[in-house]
From TrEMBL:
Alphabetical list of SUPFAM superfamilies matching this protein: Multidrug resistance efflux transporter EmrE
Keyword presence, Cell membrane: yes
UniProt membrane topology term: Multi-pass membrane protein
Similarity comment: Belongs to the UPF0060 family.
InterPro entries: EmrE-like, UPF0060
Keyword Protease: no
Broad class of where this protein is predominantly found: membrane
Segments traversing the membrane: 6-26, 33-54, 60-79, 86-104
A matching Pfam family: UPF0060
Protein name in the entry: Uncharacterized protein
Keywords of this entry: Cell membrane, Membrane, Transmembrane, Transmembrane helix
Subcellular compartments: Cell membrane; Endomembrane system
């Protein structure tokens, strides 16, 4: 389980970081280099996600969505200096509960 969590976090950093760099490039007119590095990070995200041991693509990506919501709140707080409010955290918690339900072992 520790390996799965590590892969979720690594993939989340690549996905959120890549999206953020492309956002900065296109929305805030930052250097095209940021867009290039963002694209590379997004490709790496796609590769990293395949390292999960879970056999089901749909479930893994649904679970990633919930984890990435929480990670995005922290990214916004730490990198963009936008403090999440109570509703952000409640919504993130609901998504995280969904992740546990999706990944719950089945017969």
């Amino acid at each position: 389980m520790i390996k799965a969590i590590f892969i979720f976090l690594l993939a989340g950093i690549a996905e959120i970081g890549g999206g953020y760099l492309i956002w900065k490039w296109l929305r805030e007119e930052a250097s095209g280099w940021l867009g290039l590095f963002g694209g590379i990070a997004l490709v790496l995200y796609g590769i990293i996600a395949t390292w999960q041991a879970f056999p089901d693509f749909g479930r893994v990506y649904a679970a990633y969505g919930g984890v990435f919501i929480i990670m995005s709140l922290f990214w916004g707080w730490l990198v963009d200096k936008k403090i999440p409010d109570t509703y952000d955290w409640i919504g993130g918690l609901v998504c995280l509960i969904g992740v546990f339900i999706i990944l719950w072992p089945r017969n």
